[in-house]
């Protein structure tokens, strides 16, 4: 999924999250497909009925094939025969393919210059995918779009009931122009269809909205090429849309896009689906199955994975490593700078060690795309090929999507997106996380060899997504913090057991530790996850039998933290982005010590004669951002709720709060590193060189943000819940408020930052006191949006009590104030608190 440390780095017309939601809507049960039979369709009639119907239509006024397609017209043979006559394109659809599912993927081939930063705006990026069925009714051909959200086995009593409430929408209708000369197919004109603005083959709605696109201009749009291959048809179009809000030259009044639509025949028999296990992170196809139980609807989920089958099943069953019948192959975009190609290839090939855990050798490979001379039919948009696409973009990102058969989860292809400016992001991270111990991270430019290793790491991460793997943000918590300061440990294990974590570079290691291996690598969890997803079982072994074996395999590792899966978006403090080690307070302290070493050396370590200070400016603010990451890792421990998936047979808690001692450790860290002014960030020498009057405000905003995160209703709700369940063993709201007040209102002369923090504390308590809208229970609770009702909760009582204590504290400080400014500050603060407690005054 997205390489940046956000849920969605690029929000746009079609984000990666939106693609995943769309894919998850298409699912089906293991080993069978919905068999909706429509009146008049070839799929729903006997051979005798079809023959009679065809004979009847032949008597009508349809033209002969030769009247539509002149003699001598060359057919482009393949899945469908394609004919071009007088700028019109025709499909000849054989009867044998009517009713077959086909996966349809539409991608950009070209986009206008200067589009606003948004997903799906570069050549090669996907717009949409659908499943189509071509069906015939009388003199017409329909395209229907099946949904696999709801399923029932054809033998189930509920199958017909489900069909009755699951009508497949009709995407398009075509008049039959003629029958095939052999009588075993139909001819339709598809020119206007592909040249039109068809849902699923059009611009994303977000893009249309951004640029106020009013519609397609058919006079400036056309079908460029239509090519047929044995398993797919590729259609390239050029489409012009009317728009008053153009990204560049507004005088044109329109923007033009190049699109490619791939239609790929899905297997007649879907691959045997594999049921998910919540202790391993895979993308899934989700459904509601009406045939599992006659008493209720059963939600099921099948993992997305490539079809890997051994060439030699006998050798595989003996435990020998066996090559697959069909390798997973990725092609490198010809537009990729040549110096990065070997590293992108290595990033792909590195996964072979993981596939060996599943019994396969040489399972995956990356190759340079063939030239036009080597293969004139090859296209990077062709859905038969998986490609690492290189985008000339200022976006600092990369991402790894996959297109899967919605009936089984079988991955059909992937187009990894690689934005050129991800190198800038990597360089910044590499500097602020490792420059204190790693001279190779210093300098205005890091070497190509060094950057190549960073490219390799990102390539491996994104390929992991295209193999079906989700982020595992909990992986890095398996390693003790001090182990990451060990040369031998890091040389063997890297920074985390999974490259699918956002465990970047080793920011924990200190000067003198001698650490040389500072990168993440494909680790034990990745190997185990591939073993779970790709171990081959004979065809005669049912999905239920497979599940039993795989579940037992996972149970054996369930108590080993190396194999822990922490899902993205969880409030489990072990599952965080950009963190390392099993103790955020200890790890972040080491990280800050390294930032203190880096900050005063930024200019020295990036010196280049005559160079302007832009680089030093960027890295100074990158240090501040990295510091905030370390701080936020600690904040997550306050009111944190751990989740350990268990079966009914396993004893112990599934949900457990962060131990009180660890929460106290977190507050002590924040009081020292945040609420005590971090003067080391206010480096006078650096500020004189690059600060234009914003650093002070950024520090205040950071302190305020941390304070707000701590004084937040969802966290309070969990802390009250913790106290109900665990009594004196819980870290309570009162404990938190007392610890904060003692630190923020220490008996000292407050500087400008501490004064702002004291005001923010009082103001935030005032906000909490006024809240009266309940947050209802929802599925988002496990992501931190915990339900609460301020009207019935003790929350207001606790806040009011704290405000009264604070009021007394402030009045005492006012008496001891030694300067007019400080005295005025406490007078103002006392007035604020009084108005909060007595709003009618």
Automatic annotation (TrEMBL):
Residues 124-311 form the DUF5117 domain. It holds the Pfam family DUF5118. InterPro entries: DUF5117, DUF5118, EcxA_zinc-bd, MetalloPept_cat_dom_sf, Zn_MMP-like_bac. Residues 445-748 form the EcxA zinc-binding domain. Keywords: Signal. It comes from the Bacteria. GO terms for molecular function: metallopeptidase activity. SUPFAM superfamilies: Metalloproteases ('zincins'), catalytic domain. Residues 1-29 form the signal peptide. Residues 63-111 form the DUF5118 domain. This is Zinc-dependent metalloprotease.
